[in-house]
Amino acid sequence: MEVHAHSHAHGKKSWKSYFWEFFMLFLAVFCGFLAEYKLEHVIEKRKEKQIISALYADLKKDTVNLNDIIYRYLPGHSAWEDSAELYITTLPIQENERKIALALINATNWNFYSPPQVSLEILKSSGTFNLIEDEEVKIEIMGFNSLINTYINYSQFALDAEHAMDTTTAGIMSMSSLRSIIAKVYDETNAQYGSITDKDLPPGVLLTTYDKNAYLNFIKKLHAMDYLLHDLLGLYQKILKAEIELLTVLKKAYHIQ
Predict the structure, then answer these.
(1) How large is the average pLDDT for residues 214-235?
(2) pTM (whole model) above 0.70
(3) Is residue 43 part of a domain?
(4) What is the mean pLDDT of residues 229-248?
(5) Residues 149, 153, 158, CA angle at the centre, nearest 5°?
């Protein structure tokens, strides 16, 4: 009688075992993906908060600067423009040198607006800008950016006119006195949007010509500059309004105290 030995495959797995192994592997990979996604989301939210905080602080500072330009510098500058025109058209140049020189300098003491740097850096980087999730905030930022670009393009005309004015001023004032006065202006007035006084003028020769036509030419160019400054004032007011609106949206969207 023959005995047949039947072999048994003890190591063979059923399809259920393979399914559960695959499922557990898939679950581990999926959980790892979720954890990484969550970590990235947390990091991005932290970056977004940092960006918004920097933007908010920068805009708040800029509103102060714009208010100073609009309500302190430009009215004072306009008054000195009027004084320069009045002195030149009604007074003899000789014996009124210091009064006329003071008006010339203060009427050409330029202080132009510089857009906030943090805001511009955010707008330059698409990756940084895309970290901002709130669509209303993005719309307000893009509107603000459009105004800034308009100002940057237009301000070039003002810079060209400024150069022409400065060249004219250098032609009727003593160069040594002009250097001394400009240094005084930068030291004492630019940061505060102020003007110099008679005591800031150096002694000695201030004007190099008494030809009335040279001063009338100065006034002609000053009028052209005044038109540009008036246009810039309109842009300043629009930018300030846009900043205030953007600050309001940021405060509401991010619960800034």
Answers:
(1) 93
(2) yes
(3) yes
(4) 94
(5) 130
The proportion of the chain whose per-residue pLDDT surpasses 90, expressed as a percent, equals 39
Q: Please report, for the chain, how many H helices and E strands are present, in that order.
A: 8, 0
154 Cα distance to chain centroid:
14
Q: Which residue, among 213, 212, 220, 82, has the nearest Cα to 161 in the 3D structure?
A: 220
Number of domains in the chain: 1
Residue 51 — φ and ψ, nearest 5°? -60, -45
Task: Work out the burial of residue 173: count CB atoms within 10 Å of its CB; fewer than 13 is exposed, 13-18 middle, 19 or more buried.
Answer: buried
Please classify residue 196 by burial: count the beta carbons closer than 10 Å to its beta carbon, then call 0-12 exposed, 13-18 middle and 19+ buried. middle
Distance CA 167, CA 142 (A): 38
Residue 155 within any structural domain of the chain: yes
**Within a domain: residue 6?**
no
Q: Between the ranges 45-59, 121-135, 215-229, where is the mean pLDDT highest?
A: 215-229
What lies within 8 Å, CB to CB, of 226 at 6+ separation is 78, 81
- Beta carbons within 10 angstroms of residue 251's beta carbon: 13
Show the domain range for 81: 16-254
Residue 72's contacts (CB-CB under 8 Å, 6 or more residues apart) are 193
Q: What's the mean pLDDT when you consider all of the chain?
A: 83
pLDDT band per the 50, 70, 90 thresholds, residue 236 = very high
Residue 228 domain-assigned (yes or no): yes
Q: Would the pLDDT of 255 be above 90?
A: no
Residue 200 is predicted with a pLDDT of 87
